[in-house]
Amino acid sequence: MNRSELHRLSRIRTKEAKRLLDGKCPNGAYYLAGYAVECALKACIAKQTHRHDFPDKKRGDDSYTHDLIKLVKIANLENELQQEINANVIFRDNWTIAQKWSEATRYRLFTQDDAVVLYAAIVDEKDGVLSWLKKYW
Length: 137
Hints:
The protein is mostly helical. Helix content is 67%, strand content 0%.
């Protein structure tokens, strides 16, 4: 899996989440919306791996997680995230919503409103989580 594929998967998961939302399937929409963020964070990590460099084993192993907060750390975006949170209250609220997602949400039930709120927090063109991550991927 390379950075370009992770970009593509992030866009695909976003599109799939929107279609599920439109079809009133909030559980799948919620789940896939979170994966869009995960893929974007992993693209940020991939960007930092230089061509022909042998990857650091621990960093590589740690990247195989679904935990968005851990992925921010692995991507070395903690400072940038905190700066954006401090500077932009709308982004802060969107990040707060998005970071609650985990792969374990597949075992929970969500309302249409739950899924709409997560999707909106992720795709907001100005202050959404994906808009912010695109600066670094």
